[in-house]
Design a protein that fits this description.
heterotrimer, A alpha/beta (638), B mainly alpha (212), C alpha+beta (330), A: 638 residues, alpha/beta, 6-stranded antiparallel sheet, 18 helices, C: alpha+beta, 6-stranded mixed sheet
Amino acid sequence: MHKRIVLPQVRTVRLSGFQPVFNQDLTVRLKSGVNVILGGNGLGKTTLVQAIVYALTGGSPSDEPDKLQRWDHGYFRGRLSSTLAKQASVKVEFDLDKARLTVQRTFAGSAVTALQVESGGKTVIAEKPAQAYARALADFGGYDSEADFAFIVHRMLYLPESRRLLAWDTDAQIRLLMLLNQDVVPDSSFGVRRKYLKELDSKKRHVHVALGHAQRQLSELMEYEDTANEQADDESESPEPKGHVSVEVWRQKEDQLNLIARSRVAGEKEVSDISRLLSEVSEEVESLQSKVDAEEANLVLNFLSAQERENQLAMEKLVQMGLCPVCGTHQPDLQTSARKHNQAHLCVLCGSDVRQEESGELATLRSRLFEKLNAQKQLENSFQRAEGKLQVISARESLLQREINEVRFSNPVVALSERQLPATSVLDLKTLVQRLEADELDYGAQIRELTAKLEAEYAVFREAVSTRMEKLRGSYAQYATSFLGLKCSLAESAGSDRFLNLMRFIPYFGGSKRETPESCSEAQRFFLDIAFRLALIDLETELSGHAGTFICETPENALDMSYVANVVEMFESFAKKQHVLLLTANVQVGGIAQQLLQNEPKRQRSGRILNLLQVGQLSEVHKQNQRQLDAAVRKIVG
Amino acid sequence: MNEQGKVLLRIRDVAFALHTAGDYGQALNRIRLQKFVYLVDVLGKCFEVLPPQARHIVYRHGPYDKRVQNAVDVLAFRGFVKIVKAVADESGNLSTDYVLSGAGQKWVAAMLRSEVFLARYGVARAVGEEVERLGWHRLRELVYAEPTFVSNRPLGYGRVLKTADVRTRSAGSLLTLADRILSAGFPSPQVTPRLLTRAFFDYLERYARISG
Amino acid sequence: MDLSPEQLEALRQSAADMAIVAAAGTGLDPDIIRKFFLAAKQFVVTHKAVLKDKHFAFVLGKITSGHKLTKQRMAQELANGKSVIEVDEELAFVSAQSGKVTLTGAQERGNKARSIELLCWGTWGFSLAAGVLLKDEDLSNPSSVPPTPNQWKRPIAQIVEILDDHMGRVVKREQGVKYWKDKGKRILLNPDGGTERIFHRSLFWWLGENVSDLIRIAGETRGLGQDAMDILMVTSAGSFIIEVKWLGNNGSKKYGQLRIDQGLLQVKLYLENDKALIWGHLVCYDGRSEEAHLKESCFDASQKHADCLEPSILFLDSKTPSEIADALKK
């Protein structure tokens, strides 16, 4: 059996070298009851609170399963001045049972750099502070490991703005309850063995997959050998080779196909390039041809006209004698018009411009045209050649592809080869399969055995702590009902563990169990979670006789104003039990901070507030609104 | 080039077609005239004589260039072409045969004294010889076997027949292929334009027979 | 050019018109050539009783007003050792010369004079133009060669498979092609024209019958000073050159691995110099030992043109089928 654990009660925090977050070294003294860190956005509320948690734990627990939740000294790197960071440190004094520990950490690494232990009237400054700290936690706190202590701090005593809920988290609840009740837990390694159970299951799954793979390979290899033997028998019976394709030949065809495909792509490009050049040259040819044609057209016209004159044809008669070529009568007007057109080298009848634009010497044009035609012919030959080649290559590619497909689908030897059979023998594979089957059975047996053991231990644990759980329920009901304004209690529900029937606590109100976080509103989720933590701290305090600490960041962020009073009542009830309650709050008149502080004697109020407006780095916005902020602080403090 | 110029070039082609046919005692009606001129355009490639830019299109009775019809009408109007036969068919459509008139003959003779026209006239002669050898009545089936027309005909009326484009299934491609076929194996091939024309018509005849 | 089956067939038939093809090689009038071949073949068939054991050649000469060739005149000239008879297209006698009446002789003659020739070994006729063999046939029975079943026809893209088919169906079975002088010692025959001619002719025939997209096939000596034989195939896609070589021992020469590189180089030269060619292939009929075939058939990749496939080295088995079966059983 173990010693009970004791929760820490934080007393003092000292920060040095925290520029530029704080403009001076800070010392914060925390009292039992309400303590408020007041400040606007970016003034260092979270930095301060996390520095406290860091000093106590060195960052997240070493066994934190959620990667996103892991942090250490590196978290502060961006916030502190790079020159001062080397000397920066945080020192926290806290009570742990009858001892007072003062632990210091810097930000070069996460290890404890100084430890002072005051106990039994003696003060000891540890020579090896890191080891000494772990020992002190064990001796005074009852913690088997720093990881356990860090777990308690992070998951129970500190609620950051990220709101990592405890309610609904089966694993966290089980671990917490077992830690808090480790004096009655039969074997403190429950959590470790649960983890081992999961590892066994994971190994069994891997073996199962490997077994399936090996069985498949064995089956394929056996089929391959049977087929190969069959074909060898067939071949030896007949001198004429059959139409089967050996793996080697098939692979050669694949290589050929790859080569051909590359040739085809090159061929397509060649065809495209030549086609483009051919188009360009053809355009030039057409342009020259157009000019040549124009000259020829003019020549035809000349010959036509000459013959018309010589033979006194109809048009000539129209021009000379005014004879209409259609009716044969004399038409002076028509003649005048015809003559006029004729003189202007226009169409005698309609007057349109029949002559073509002269482009130059016909012989020269023709010579240029023939040159271009030769070039065009060369390109045409090249084009046909390239196109023909492409045609053949494409045909060969298609044929090869078809052959390969036929072989692939009809020839099991080749199909099997494609699947890359292992370079191993049937006997080796059979041995492997047997071994894997035995391993799988063995893991299964181990899992069953361990599961039974853990189930039994859990049952014993539940039985042993049943009375304590009643107290937990009572405490929770008080806090939760205060907040909700209606009756709320803790109900049990089956947890999500795959192996063991573990139970978890969930809220019950409004006549139903709230099985999932989504069955509550955001504010309900948050504050009912706080209620659960407060109840756990109360329980622990009752059992150990020592009060604890609860640190909560800006609880107002999730809260409707109408619930402020309820929350204040909840916190007040907690604070009265001599716990240290540390809240961060924005400068907000009428909020939780103001209402909580109103219940404190006025003289003591200022001692319970750290006003970061005085020590934090004010932004321009803060500076502009300084007077209003100061006025608000004064109202909050009262 | 304007429309008048295009018609003038077809006037030239019609003149050569009628002159050539006339030497074989043939008169050409407008449909045969279209086909003959089309074949001259096609075979021009062998002789490095380019077809006109305004080309035949696919139409009801085969390759058709409206300017060929316009040209023969102009020549008839101006007295260079005679209409020698006008026959009405069952539907009442008039089919007219054309020949060169005396003036037309002189006109062509004058043009042929200029070397400018000799190459094109040579093509017309070569086509005329082949058509004469195979039969003028077969002009239609020969044209219908021509590869450019074969590949474009199913695509509908109005398709421009680009006979010289080697990037398509055209006469130009076939002529280049034929040149290669005939030259294969000979160290110094003698594939003349005339021989290529002969081979081309041989192909047309065989294709017409095979494809029915 | 992508052709329809009808267009391909029409082209094929046109390309089979010897007169036009011969005109392309010689520049002569195709009608005259046609008349010549018709008249010459008719003469041989008509007088086959006299000519059946004779070897002679008709060469097309210029038109003459001379007398038509008669059977008697023919016999007389042959008896005088003048077996190269020059005639016009009407078969009017021009002249008679002595000369080689072998295929090589005809090819050399034609190549030099760019002439048209009908070489006859009895009634077996070889039609040549400018030294290029256009056709060989039994003149007395032109359709004696049975049509090839379609199952063996493949497109040129499958040239390797076509060669394998020829190897399996013809060469291995020695169907119409004899090439062993001494099977036991693996010595190949060495006839007139060389050992290569044996394989060349057989392959030439097979390709002519079994390349489905073939339009024309031509086989000749290139006259490059080597006894190399090649086959030129024209398809609608382009022209292909097949270089034929033999390896092994023909009693007079021995060819080994180096010959493969020589063949590849030859194909490379053809592909570089003839822009009409789009593909080339080397086929070697291997009469060496099986061990040499397996171990010494590598080639120098730098000798191979990019448009040339990897060479086909085809082993010539000298075992009988039963010997092969016995070996497999072992």
